[in-house]
Amino acid sequence: MKKKNNLFSIFNHTLFVIFALIVILPLLITLFSSFKTATQIAKESVLAFPKPFTFQNYIDVYKDGNMLVAFKNSALLVFFTVIINSLLASMVAYSLSRFEFKLKRLFFFLLSVGMLLPGFIAEITRFGIIINLGVYDTLLAPLLIYVGTDLMQIYIYKQFIDQIPPSLDESAMIDGCSYFKIYWKVIFPVIIPATATLAILKSVAVLNDMFTPYLYMPSPRNATMTTMLMTYVGRSGSWSKLSAAVIVVMLPGIILYLLFRKKILAGMTAGAVKE
């Protein structure tokens, strides 16, 4: 039995190392290439450490890649999406958790179906709505999509709110609070851990999304970090410059995750168990 356990442990560790290399090696190659010249990439191994380092690729990306505009647009989308989405999703979750109304079960069923269906099946209809609203090729187009389609966020908020004793609501109501004041002064402060977690996940999702900005705001003045990278691919003409652009686009999401990874895990598990 001990021998079998040792073999199983070796197999697990070997499998882990293989999958880790599959993920890490492409990132490492891209990072090294971003500090090399085209000549170094042609002559050296892809895993060779860059000697000497060159930052010219990043300077070229900054000059030719419309990076400041892309960063500004991505930051605006993330900022407004996180704020509006957190408020709307938490309000809907509060209503579903605390109030009884007709067709509530049907609403939950439709919510579940909406989470299971892939988003692209409604793309034609959604594109027509954006055109008719007159917001095509503006920052408002992806913003409306981001704040209106995150059904999973409503579900996670509801799991948190279900853990809050209804007696807190009743005490606040006795003190004269309206339903909105109960939500704002009692419920929302308690679900801050969930809000922090969902805000980080939503920020990373918006930063990494290429399809929605590319489809709904194709103008260069509305470029985001991902669409900037997409257009830069055809103009760079160099693997070293393209690698630098990839690293620039990856950095915001990686930094957010590394800074707040503990909050992400804590927030995802805090509302998972009923006591």
UniProtKB/TrEMBL annotation:
Using the record for this protein, list the coiled-coil segments as residue ranges, or answer none: none
GO cellular component terms, alphabetically, are:
plasma membrane
Q: Which keywords belong to this entry?
A: Cell membrane, Membrane, Transmembrane, Transmembrane helix, Transport
Where in this chain does the record put each ABC transmembrane type-1 domain? 71-260
Q: Which GO terms describe its biological process?
A: transmembrane transport
Record field: transmembrane: 7-29, 75-94, 106-133, 182-207, 242-260
Q: Where can this protein be found?
A: Cell membrane
Bilayer disposition of the protein: Multi-pass membrane protein
| Gene3D superfamilies on file | MetI-like
InterPro entries, alphabetized: MetI-like (IPR000515), MetI-like_sf (IPR035906)
**SUPFAM superfamilies in UniProt:** MetI-like
Q: Which family does it belong to?
A: Belongs to the binding-protein-dependent transport system permease family.
Protein name per the record: ABC transmembrane type-1 domain-containing protein
Task: List the source organism.
Answer: Cetobacterium somerae ATCC BAA-474
